[in-house]
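Database export, one record per block. Field names are fixed; values are copied verbatim from the stored entry.
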Amino acid sequence: MNGQKQASSYRAPAADILRVASVFMIAWYHIWQQSWLNPNFTLFGLEINMYPVVSRGYMFVYLMLLISGFVLTLGMYSGRYPTAKAFYLGRARRILPSYLLCLIVFFFFDAVPNESYYSNKHMLTDVFAHLTFTQNLFYESYSVTRLNGALWTLAVEVQFYLLFPLLFRLFRKKPLVTFSGILGVCLLCKLYVQHFQPDTTLFVNRLPVMLDVYACGMLAAWGYVRLKKAGRLKWLHLILALAACAGMYMLLRRLSYVSGYEEQRRAQMWAALPFSLLGGVFLMCGSLTWRAVLMAFSNPAVAFLSGISYNFYIWHQAIAVRLKQGRIPAYTGDAPNMDGQTVWQHRYTLLCFAAAFLIAVALTYLVERPCAAQWREKKATDDKAT
């Protein structure tokens, strides 16, 4: 019971709203890539310029990884994972059911029937890499995968999971020293990519150059635990949380002026650290402000959206691509996104979001949660037997 109370006390409401916002912006970015629907609009007579945010929506992947490092660290502090084995089993229960189902669907009902693979090597590498969570390491399973391009983030996550129990043991003893060490290793890897890799395609989205994002999440969790005990300066925490949001927007706006494939990826790589630091400030300070704000950040509606966000994320891009390929909704010509077919652009965008939402709800409640419950029940039965 004490462990449950402690785990509850370490719950950070800002994580829910940031997770929902991040997944939504990533989805908007991927759908926008297919529709090119102008993301600027007028609201109550005010011109809202969303282009810098939507056109750099890939940056929100860093916030998803940041949240992972943040929440996992809070889980360790609360005693949710008493052993490394418990941690690994908990992570497997969380991600495997939906992940494996996604692979099965796209391999047996899309890639194979459509003869998408250009060689046996391509097929074997693609399947093997996805089953071992190494798809971000190979050209065949990353750049030209025939399964689901969004799943590379799961490879980064699982690779970090393998390191996390050890990293947390070090972090708990020497948080600032461990943070500095992780940051140093990450920066050295980025310098290597910057100066010795003319093509960064296979390097920017690998774990070594993304370790700083996780480190920021761990540091934010440490700061949150320390500041929560004080329980003061709620007004200052709100100001800092809002300032962090403004800082993230300004950074995205600056990135939106960068052009060229390599230039954008290199700018993205170096912007990950300041973007994650700002996200960490929001997670930490946004969870320590007034109760009314916390209720806006984490309420039943936000909790529901956060709960389905995993399945929404892993399915939204593939759905968007295949709806367009299938001419759903119908369009004329070959490039409705280039021909100014604004009616199609709006219908397509709404359909992509709606379809991803419905599939996410169905898979969360019909696959993910029943599998997790069955896994927990089996574990409880095994524990009693021993």
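Remark 1: The longest strand covers residues 41-43.
Remark 2: The mean pLDDT is 94.
End of record.
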